[in-house]
Amino acid sequence: MPDPSSLLKLEQIVDRASQIGRRWSRNSADLTLDEKSAGQFASNADLEIEQALRQALQQAFPDQAIIGEELGGHLSPDQSGWAIDPIDGTSNFVVGLPIWGISIGYIHDGKSVLGAISLPDLNLTLSAATGQGLHLNGVQTRGARQHPAVKVMAIGENDFETGPQTDARAQHFRDRGFSVVRYRCAVFSLAMSALGRLSGYVEHGCGLWDIAAAEVICREAGLSVNTARIADGRYAIEAVWPD
What we know:
CATH topology of the largest domain: Fructose-1,6-Bisphosphatase, Chain A, domain 1
Number of helices: 7
CATH superfamily of the largest domain: Fructose-1,6-Bisphosphatase, subunit A, domain 1
Number of domains: 2
Shape: globular
């Protein structure tokens, strides 16, 4: 398992990956796309970033298992290793929206204990390790709701649930007095929740790489975080600020 000094190494790794992402963001005309499933894309930028992350992690943390959204791998529910998402929100990234992010999380015995999320177009990097608090751009910060009276819940949607199921979840939060937003990027939404700019984020059916970093980041920020494996390769997360 990485030691407490690993947080700095991880921040450096995700910052280098962010530089690649920003380069591609400035040169989006050179992107090529593969539609993996309806509305789900991978680009040559995704592949370059994931390859760079894998190489950097293998050098900094030898002999650790790695699973990534684009290049695969395997982590059993009780195994330890890295889960990486080179670009979450690829559709947003491709059309020039800044709502995308890079995520690297370390799972120890099935629990997220170390992670970093970069939002390159916003110049924000969030990181955390269990017991070390939330860090923003390398500096420890205090997680807190910005305006508790303003209740905005982000929810995710994917091909695991039907549209009506997701819509019912949205209505459930509206009935409780929340405004509901869908940014189609779990990493961005969870990072904004950790910073207190959202009331929380809920998604059922995301990948491990979507939540491996965010779980520990949101937990260290002070949110109530529940995750569960709900099917092979599919997870649920509910990360919400306490009332």
